[in-house]
Amino acid sequence: MSTQPNVKDFFDPKTNTFSYVVSDPATKQCAIIDSVLDYDSASAVTSTTHADQIIAYVKEQGLQVEWILETHVHAHHLTAAQYLKQQLGGKTAMSERISLVQDTFS
């Protein structure tokens, strides 16, 4: 069995964004990194098409989500972290300095 982590990328062409699932082949534990919640600005409607692809992959591979991570503030897309957590479990995490960015933009 490989000791290297598996890294699966998911590309969202609308936002030119990559999301990743990084998993341990031995334990089947994984982290989801920088998820995308689909957003149509013309109708102001969100959807979960991109996140549902990640959910399908996690289930197909028999993975257990440990972490849903946001590596930075996403000005060009919304995060699907809460949706993924509802569907797959796991803990969410982001930089503690996010409040500085929020204060700046508010």
UniProtKB/TrEMBL annotation:
The lineage of its organism: Bacteria, Pseudomonadati, Pseudomonadota, Gammaproteobacteria, Moraxellales. Transmembrane segments: none annotated. One of its GO terms (biological process) is glutathione metabolic process. It comes from the Bacteria. Pfam families: Lactamase_B (PF00753). It comes from Acinetobacter tandoii DSM 14970 = CIP 107469. This is Metallo-beta-lactamase domain-containing protein. Residues 16-95 form the Metallo-beta-lactamase domain. PANTHER family: PERSULFIDE DIOXYGENASE ETHE1 (PTHR43084), PERSULFIDE DIOXYGENASE ETHE1, MITOCHONDRIAL (PTHR43084:SF1). GO terms for molecular function: sulfur dioxygenase activity.
